[in-house]
Specification:
alpha+beta; 3-stranded mixed β-sheet; 24% strand; 16 strands; 9-stranded mixed β-sheet
Amino acid sequence: MDSANAFVGELHGIYRLIYGGQLSRVDGWRMTVDTDKTLVVAGRGVHGDDSWVSLGQAANRPAKHLYAQLEKAEADRDLKRFCVGVRNPLNGRWIHESLDRVPVRLDEAVKGIAETVKRAEPKIDFIQASTGWKQVTARALPLGPAGTPSSPSPENPHTSFGWVMRTDLDGFTARVQDCLDKDEKLQELAEQFYCIMDAAAQFAQRHQETLAQLPWAGDNFTAAAVFPDKAGYDAAIPKRLVELSLDFEKDMAEAATECGFGGWAHGVAGGDVHGNAAGNVFLAGVEVGQRRFLAGAGEGFGRSAQAFGDINPKAGMIVVYKPDWERLDESYKKVFEPAVNVRGQQSTIYYIAKAESLLRVRAQQASAVSFTTISFPREQPRIIPTKPHYQ
């Protein structure tokens, strides 16, 4: 725990140096900390980026506690700005204290880096995505490798319109806890997770939507469905926002069940986009040498993650952000109902539905009888019903 406190203090000190001025556009920050054994694996994704994935309760609990706090109004939050929440391992309760009370020890090298960043005053120049997005066989968003001009960066992020789909693998955290003291089972679990990551990368690569995959966050897969303009985004919302999750359910169900897991829960969010906005999905890469770590910003990223802290959906459930639910096709919209949050209250910002129920709606639409008009020479046109079919 001493190492965790030292890290928190150093990070807080760096933030103070960079964002401590009166003209800073950063209003504040808050942190959560937990300590326990965990499984760490090298992340795999469609864009070939580096990441380390921490799997276990010590990684899972702080994220859920943080997003559960963000669902509340600032005045009602136990975890205030410039505070840290630390989980007591003896009773599981969260203790909140001011970050300014945490000892800060910054060496001269760290201070020098912070001052350099502060003086740089980085600006954001939004660049349009490549016209090669609409490929037929390779649909993942093309991103240049680390170190190249087309690689997104904090100074030059990719900007686009879209929504974010975040999925959580049911039963994985419990399996990690069960294996932590059993080396053979832990190795087997890591190999199974590599298979799941590879299957998810293939999904992102071949799906008809253009997808940008973010690094795995524990057992959470995150992808943004992106469009070069608002018109394309608006046209896709009514049906394709739900159907992307249904496609993931179909393609990834086998990968989950073969490895002994219960399936996937979904949090989906895009949000309202103003008519003059440049976009609502922003992708940047933090580069260290020739290694790049992709990061995403925008309402969809925050609200899709918050869905798991607020609602904690079970496998087979899809949670949708209210502004997106309001724009769904009526056939899908009526399947959803207001979600109940982790405190037993009806959520004001999320709706929830069973993926199975949504799949039935999709199948009914696909199999509905349609008609084709055929004209013959010197005869009246005939209306012929087409056979029901499924995609």
